[in-house]
Amino acid sequence: MDANESSREKPLQGIRVLEMGQLLAGPFCGQMLAWFGAEVIKLEPPGRGDPLRGWRALDDEGTSWWWRSLARNKKSITVDLRQEEGQALARELIGSVDVLIENFRPGKMESWGMGPDEMRQSNPGLVYTRVSGYGQTGPYKDKVGYASACEALGGFRHVNGFTDRPPVRPNLSIGDTLAGMHGVIGTLLALFHRQATAQSDRQGASFAGGRGQVVDVSILESVYNLMEAVVPEYSGAGIERQPSGSTLTGIVPTNTYRCKDGKFVVIGGNGDSIYIRLMTAAGREDLAHDERLATNQGRVDHEPEIDAVLEAWSGSLDSTELLQILDEAEVPCSPIYSVTDMFEDEHFRARGLFETVDIGHQRELEIPALHPRLQDTPGGTEWCGPELGVHTDEVLSSVLQKSDDEIQRLRSNKIV
User: Fold this and answer.
1) Residues 6+ apart with CB under 8 A from 405
2) Among 46, 124, 140, 299, which has the highest number of CB atoms less than 10 A from its own CB?
């Protein structure tokens, strides 16, 4: 990224975060906070570190390409939480930060003496962000909560796919990412409240540091938040939404169409005026001004007729020709991109959606820039996902004021 942009002020500068957890949901939350300027200290087990370091495609040194992106801007330290002294060290760190992110199974932090009640005594301003599969309470809280299972229980899988086939999933851990995003939202809301209470508590007593609180995020509920009208339609009308293939139930026309060259194009012509422009562009003025189809409900009632027309029209044109006609008619449309297409697209480049980072040994890697874009205090990547434990001495010295001798003792005893 541009050096001047990298050096600009970021909105979360001055906020210190301890990330305890691994893989995706909690670390995605930490990634977002780090990108926007928080000092994120990632605590990893000695020896192997976060398992994500070895997941999916690996470089020649056995490190995941994904790791370089997800752990950007984080400081990696190693602490052995299996040892009591390692747990004591973690408690010291929790006592010195503004935010804790943890995504262990409910009760694990309490078993180490690091639960919210214990840590509130030494750090009353702590925002304690907990990410789990099913939440910290309820009959499912102790179940193993992977994204796949939580996406299924949260209703997301049920509405995906075709009615004559098993439910499908996107080739992504979308539940984990959604939980990470909700973790960011909850953390920022809690920090905002802490700032609002920094001068006084509700009784007017002095409370200069502000009050922290627990942020309880579950993968299940993060997926459930995507369900739009599914709940009120069932409650009010008894409608149980079913999978609808490449269409969207109750909104017409919006679908994926195959073109003459074999490529697929998405067309969203469901607005009343957009529908008129779409059918006019397709050479079907009769349908463009058909009173039966003037409203969305009318188009829903005649969906097979409309889709048949659009399928025939799309199939008569190459995708580039179809997209040009639709763009000129101001009809929402898009080709279906692979990552190869993204890398070659001028809009992605113009919007700065890739950042180039140094990954050592004279190698560079492009990773995704994050969203949203802030005009005056943008986020940015300062360094890619680091090697295991490279910041241990720095953090122990600068954050916990440990002496060189004490750090050496911790190393000798394999605490860090």
Assistant:
1) none
2) 299
Contacts of 45 (CB under 8 A, 6+ apart): 78, 79, 80, 81
Residues in a beta bridge with 130: 102, 216
The tokens of 202 are what? 């509700």
Q: How much is the pTM? A: 0.93
Gap between the Cα atoms of 354 and 366, Å rounded: 6
Torsion on CA atoms 322, 324, 326, 330, rounded to nearest 10: 170
> Is the CATH number of domain 254-258+264-335 2.70.70.10?
no
406-407-412 Cα angle (round to 5): 95
d(CA 411, CA 406): 9
Query: Taking the C-alpha atoms of 311, 312, 313 and 319 in order, what is their torsion angle to the nearest 10 degrees?
Result: 60
Q: What are phi and psi of 71, to 5 degrees?
A: -100, 20
Instruction: Tell me the pairing of strands 16-20 and 99-102.
Output: parallel
Q: Which residue has the tokens 């409608």?
A: 239
pLDDT in tens, 2-50: 444 445 689 999 999 999 989 999 999 999 999 999 999 999 999 999 9
pLDDT digits (tens, 9 = 90+) for 98-134: 999 999 999 999 999 999 999 999 999 999 999 999 9
Tell me, yes or no, if 176 is annotated catalytic: yes
Closest CA to 183 of 213, 226, 219, 151: 219
- Given the residues 176, 201, 272, 404, select the one marked as catalytic: 176
Residue ranges of domains in the chain: 3-227+351-412, 254-258+264-335
Q: Which residue has tokens 């992504």? A: 172
The pairing of beta strand 39-44 with beta strand 74-78: parallel
Architecture of domain 3-227+351-412: 3-Layer(aba) Sandwich (3.40)
Alpha helices in 123-229 (DSSP H): 147-153, 174-196, 219-224
Distance CA 149, CA 398 (A): 41
- Dihedrals phi, psi of 285, to nearest 5 degrees: -60, -30
